[in-house]
Amino acid sequence: MDTGPLESWNDGAAKRAIVEFVTSAAREGTPGFVPPADRIAVFDNDGTLWVEKPAPVQTAFVLGKLAARVRADPSLAGREPYRAVVDGDEAFFRALEAQDPGAVTLMVRALGYAWEGTTPEEYEAEAARYLASWRHERFGLPYTGLVYRPMLELFDYLRAHGWRLFVCSGGGRDFMRVFCEELWGLPRENVIGSAPEFAYRDGVPVRRAELHGPLALGPGKPEYVLARTGRLPCFAAGNDDVDVEMLQSARFALLVVHDDDVREYAYTDNAERARATAERSGWTTVSVKNDWNTVLTERPDQEVTRCHR
Amino acid sequence: MDTGPLESWNDGAAKRAIVEFVTSAAREGTPGFVPPADRIAVFDNDGTLWVEKPAPVQTAFVLGKLAARVRADPSLAGREPYRAVVDGDEAFFRALEAQDPGAVTLMVRALGYAWEGTTPEEYEAEAARYLASWRHERFGLPYTGLVYRPMLELFDYLRAHGWRLFVCSGGGRDFMRVFCEELWGLPRENVIGSAPEFAYRDGVPVRRAELHGPLALGPGKPEYVLARTGRLPCFAAGNDDVDVEMLQSARFALLVVHDDDVREYAYTDNAERARATAERSGWTTVSVKNDWNTVLTERPDQEVTRCHR
Question: Record's Pfam families (chains A, B) (predicted)?
Answer without folding.
Answer: HAD (PF12710)
